[in-house]
Amino acid sequence: MSSALETLRRDFGGNIIEPGGAQYESARRSVLASGSPAYVLRPKSVGDVQAGVRFAASAGLLLSVRGGGHGFPGFGTNDGGVVIDLSKLANVEIIDKERHLVRTGGGATWGQVAAALAPHGLAISSGDTKSVGVGGLTLTGGIGWKVRKYGLALDNVVAAEVVTASGRVVHASAEENPELFWATRGGGGNFGIVTVFEFVAHPTTDVFYGKIAFPASEAASVLQGWADYLRSAPEELTSVADFANPFAGGPEAPVEIYVAFDGDDPDLAAQAIDPIRRLGTVIDDDVALKPYADTLVDGVTPPPGILFATRSAFVDKESVSEVLQILAEVGASERSPFIAVRSVSGAVSRVPHDATAYAHRQAELMFVTTTAGPEQVVEAARPALEAIWRRLTPHVNGAYANFLASATEEDVAAIYPTETYRRLAAVKRQYDPGNLFARNHNVRPQ
Ligand SMILES: Cc1cc2nc3c(=O)[nH]c(=O)nc-3n(C[C@H](O)[C@H](O)[C@H](O)COP(=O)(O)OP(=O)(O)OC[C@H]3O[C@@H](n4cnc5c(N)ncnc54)[C@H](O)[C@@H]3O)c2cc1C
């Protein structure tokens, strides 16, 4: 260990933060979890990442990788191990103006990306929050405000630079190491640390964005009408339905349909959005033209000790009606979690199912239930949550790794169907045979 540490101190040009050090209190936490790692390493270069990986491997320490730090299971920290915090690798650069090729550091956040691309009239469909990391979100999906038109964030990745478990730098693209490229788009942080992502960005104008709210009593019919309409709506329209929000009255909370229309033509936007306004009694409507970068909200860091029981699943076309009926009933009950339903069809479903390791291309919807609060509150809510999920399970499938706070074998099987898992395990054997990168929804080499 001491020679491993000496080598680290010699080779590492970034910050090494240890217990008792000035920055340790904040560095030990990721956004949603706390830990007590022995070392938090903040690399400033790819060489530093290589040194950090070699150190964790040779010292035999548990390794966490932190991008934007928003992961629900708290994999971005640990107790007694090493955290490689990529926040200083956050450069965003347009490398080919004609092809709209963008290179981002593995620790950039989506707010940094949106701000850097806005002056060039470009955007990458990512998520809804500025402080969420490019790394975590992209490596297992990325459902953003342009998902129906441009697909998942990972569908727009064209290359990645990866530091693997041996500390080697490997390039992954359709031409170079294509199996690693396949695995990196869906397989999470299982194969190494992505120090650079290359994306194809898309030209963007200002967009029509905002929420249209309906009374809770109309939830069932609004949700059914919304899902029906999205089947024929232009793909410029992406939409999310939020309800049973505990901060807005729980079962009394309005159903908020968020819309993002990718374009600045008011007539086309109205044609796309008006059918949603006609779904019920509109009690609030703040849809307005705004820069794409302004559709992303600031993230909130909850105080220490707040737990998130976040769980997700996908819904295929034939089950949409049944599932929305159940969710509307759940939302009307006192014990409801917060529920968000996202449309994920369009461009997502046109990518061949085996082109990336994201395995849920056929789904029309993805929904998330969240209960958050102090540990006792969350634990007390678990039996009711489990009962809700027992009702839903026969009608839903899979799980979206980015909205999943637990990491049981069942969870991993829900994220990766058998064929996907087998192929990922083969890639894992090649690039991380000792399972150094295990703090994730883990694909085991054996
Ligand atoms: C407020 C909030 C809003 C969200 N909104 C959306 C949304 O709109 N759409 C959506 O799809 N998801 C959304 N998510 C879910 C989000 O995609 C996941 O929480 C994701 O894991 C966050 O990534 P991160 O880099 O910030 O987190 P981290 O905790 O830093 O990373 C999670 C894990 O990803 C891996 N990882 C991260 N970066 C790298 C890297 N460069 N190389 C290798 N491995 C890496 C590591 O295993 C790490 O432990 C949201 C989450 C929150 C909390």
How would the blueprint of this fold be written?
Elements: H1 2-11, E1 15-17, H2 24-27, E2 39-42, H3 46-59, E3 63-66, E4 82-85, E5 92-96, E6 101-105, H4 110-117, E7 122-123, H5 134-139, H6 147-150, E8 157-163, E9 169-173, H7 178-184, E10 193-200, E11 202-203, E12 207-214, H8 219-232, E13 237-243, E14 255-261, H9 266-277, E15 284-285, E16 288-290, E17 306-315, H10 320-331, E18 338-343, H11 347-350, E19 365-374, H12 375-392, H13 409-415, H14 418-431
Parallel strand pairs: 2-4, 3-4
Antiparallel strand pairs: 1-2, 5-6, 6-10, 7-11, 8-9, 8-10, 12-14, 12-15, 12-16, 13-14, 13-18, 17-19, 18-19
Helix pairs in contact: 1-3, 8-10
The largest β sheet comes out as:
8 strands, antiparallel
Low-confidence stretches: none
Span between termini: 27 Å
Tally of individual helices:
14
Q: Give the helix level as a range of percent.
A: 25-40%
- Percent strand equals 15-25%
Mean of residue pLDDT values? 97
Oligomer: single chain
Bound molecules: flavin-adenine dinucleotide
How many strands in all? 19
Structural class: alpha+beta
What gross morphology would you assign? Answer: globular
- How big is the Rg? 21 Å
Keywords:
alpha+beta, 8-stranded antiparallel sheet, 5-stranded antiparallel sheet, globular, binds flavin-adenine dinucleotide
